[in-house]
Design a protein that fits this description.
With 352 residues, the chain is an alpha/beta fold. It contains 12 helices and 12 strands. The strands form 3 sheets. It has a 7-stranded parallel beta sheet, with helices on both faces. The structure holds nicotinamide-adenine-dinucleotide (NAD) and thymidine-5'-diphosphate.
């Protein structure tokens, strides 16, 4: 194998798209997916890779230094693409410690393991940390954008933990010379998205004629990016980004939550053979999220100009494809709702 790459959090939403892209595109790389299989980790996301000769899965926690160091010693990784995280803002409001543990402590653990394993020579090595635009705080609706030099101003425990991890990654570059890259991306959408997040939750609720909870007045704005466009950006940055640099990734695709949900309702009315306007009746305005960031919007011109990346998919086309995927993969969603997805690891990997 030409390279051995550790991808953390590969059983989650974005990680599974990244693992699939790398395993299928780089058949001369060995890809090791390290994931603790928390509630958000689902190996059914990657069942199409079963039998791929260049793919390995290891169940483990990035906060466990002994385990992580043993993995580095055994596989002599050339690169790390670090996606494992607690990722849901509402959960971070309810339980901030879990976010500090995985996102901050877990990231520093991985940095230490990489630094120790690679000591002597960082030549040809790369530690790529995947982060979020939420570290920059919130914008007004005034046409401004987050750039790579926007000041960090996180508001939620989730974004504060990601901001902290970003600072540690850069500190390891500046202090120890660890070859790192960081990217900060806007909201992703697409297949295999855990149904606690706005788009898959709404699709599921519309399907079952359950209320669609819209926080506040639904006026908050997010910049949505097709998940495979994010995976493509990660591929480009991993291979061509410059050590020590940060790249913003975004869809240039801003929607208020209420406009997004109305569009989703129209798409689903058509797909489910309902009368126009039927699903929109499910929209229910609920108490706003505490500290709810008003607007996120990314300027990704550095990535576009320096590394030639472009988002590929128009939002309405992407939303239709996403709805189709959820309607065609009812079993995937059912297994999450009834908890059966947690058995997949035992069936595939235990007793081997
Ligand atoms: P996700 O919650 O779907 O997946 C996270 C994965 O990490 C899961 O498979 C989980 O089992 C694993 N994990 C959690 N704690 C772990 C631990 N201690 N050790 C090992 N594995 C652990 O998240 P996602 O939406 O796919 O996000 C992936 C990354 O991308 C995160 O770092 C997130 O901050 C970042 N990000 C997400 C978005 C988005 O819109 N979802 C946008 C920008 C950046
Ligand atoms: P979410 O998918 O949780 O992503 P993030 O908070 O990381 O941006 O939420 C997207 C937007 O949708 C955010 O403004 C909060 C809002 N939202 C709702 O209105 N209702 C919901 O049930 C959820 C989960 C989110």
């Amino acid at each position: 194998m030409r390279k051995t790459i550790l991808i953390t959090g590969g059983a989650g939403f974005i990680g599974s798209h990244v693992v699939r892209l790398f395993v299928n595109k780089y058949t001369d790389y060995l890809i090791l997916n390290l994931d603790a299989l928390t509630y958000a980790g689902n190996l059914e996301n990657l069942k199409d890779l079963a039998g791929s000769p260049n793919y390995l899965f290891a169940k483990g926690d990035i906060t466990d230094l002994e385990f992580v160091s043993a993995l580095f010693a055994r596989y002599n990784f050339d690169g790390v693409i670090h996606l494992a995280a607690e990722s849901h803002v509402d959960r971070s409001i309810a339980d901030p410690m879990a976010f500090i543990k995985t996102n901050v402590f877990g990231t520093v653990n991985l940095l230490n393991a990489a630094k120790e394993a690679w000591k002597g020579s960082f030549e040809g090595k790369r530690f790529y940390h995947i982060s979020t635009d939420e570290v920059y705080g919130a914008l007004e609706n005034d046409g401004t954008f987050f750039t790579e030099s926007t000041k960090y101003q996180p508001h939620s425990p989730y974004s504060a933990s990601k901001a902290s991890s970003d600072h540690f990654v850069r500190a390891y570059h500046d202090t120890y010379g660890l070859p790192v890259v960081v990217s900060n991306c806007s909201n992703n959408y697409g297949s295999h998205h855990f149904p606690e997040k706005l788009i898959p939750l709404s699709i599921n609720n519309i399907k079952h004629r359950k209320p669609i909870p819209v926080y506040g007045k639904g006026e908050n704005i997010r910049d949505w990016l097709w998940v495979d466009d994010h995976a493509r950006a990660i591929d480009i940055i991993f291979h061509n980004g410059k050590d020590g640099e940060t790249y913003n990734i975004g869809g240039n695709n801003e929607w208020t939550n209420i406009d997004l949900i109305n569009t989703l309702c129209k798409i689903m009315d058509r797909k489910l053979g309902r009368a126009d306007g039927e699903s929109a009746q499910l929209i229910t305005f609920v108490t706003d999220r505490a500290g709810h960031d008003f607007r996120y919007a990314i300027n990704s011109s550095k990535l576009q100009n320096e590394l030639g990346w472009q988002p590929s998919l128009q939002f309405e086309e992407g939303l239709k494809k996403t709805v189709d995927w959820y309607l065609e993969n009812e079993e995937w969603l059912e297994h999450i709702v009834n908890g059966q997805y947690r058995d997949y690891y035992a069936k595939q990997y235990e007793n081997r």
